[in-house]
Amino acid sequence: MIFRSNLTENVVASIRKDLHMMTHDYWLQRDQLIPSFISLVG
Q1: pTM higher than 0.85, yes or no?
Q2: What is the pLDDT of residue 25?
Q3: pLDDT tens-digit series, residues 15-41
Q4: What are the Cα distances from residue 22, in Å, to 8, 13, 15?
Q5: What is the rounded distance in angstroms from the CA atom of residue 40 to the CA atom of residue 5?
Q6: How far apart, in whole angstroms, are the C-alpha atoms of residue 24 and residue 18?
Q7: How far lies 34's CA from each of 2, 16, 25, in Å?
Q8: CA dihedral 4, 9, 11, 8 (to 10 degrees)
Q9: What domain of life does the UniProt record list for this protein's source (predicted)?
Q10: What's the rounded Cα separation, in Å, for the pair 29 and 38?
Q11: Could you say which DSSP state residue 7 is in?
């Protein structure tokens, strides 16, 4: 039981880290995408 909860915590922690990295990458890409999108549309 202790092992399982510990495993779950590790999985949740790694998922949070992945999500954080993904959102960080998303914001970086969004800053680059929006100007190019505006230049395409405009």
Answers
A1: no
A2: 84
A3: 999 998 888 888 888 888 888 888 888
A4: 21, 14, 10
A5: 50
A6: 10
A7: 47, 26, 14
A8: 30
A9: Archaea
A10: 14
A11: H
